[in-house]
Amino acid sequence: MTSADTICFSHGKESGPWGTKITALAEIAMKRGFTVVSIDYTGEPDPDARVRKLCREYRRSAGYIQQVP
After folding, report:
1. Rounded CA gap, 64 and 69, in Å?
2. Is the pTM of this model over 0.70?
3. Residues 20, 22: Cα–Cα separation, whole Å
4. Is 35 a member of any domain?
């Protein structure tokens, strides 16, 4: 699996990681062979921390790193 095979959904601040739109889009993507990641930012109001989490989760899902501190 490479990063080109992974779709990462990053929802808005007020929505959840598996809302209606993301769930529908993820279903289409998975049927086409993509890995789907949707980041959960619940309880993380700091924008910089949210970006760091997005980067960590994407790298993990794309197989770039084995463990994320």
Report:
1. 14
2. no
3. 6
4. yes
In a domain, 39, yes or no: yes
List, for residues 2-17, the tens digit of each pLDDT value. Answer: 556 888 888 766 778 8
Alpha carbons 47 and 5: distance in angstroms, whole number:
26
- Asked, for residue 27, whether it belongs to a domain, the answer is yes
Q: How many distinct structural domains can be found in the chain?
A: 1
Structural domain boundaries, residue 18: 3-61
* Cα-only R_g, the chain: 12
Give strand pairing partners of 36. Answer: 7
Length of the chain: 69
pLDDT at position 5 is 83
Please give the span between the terminal C-alpha atoms of the chain, in angstroms, as a whole number.
22
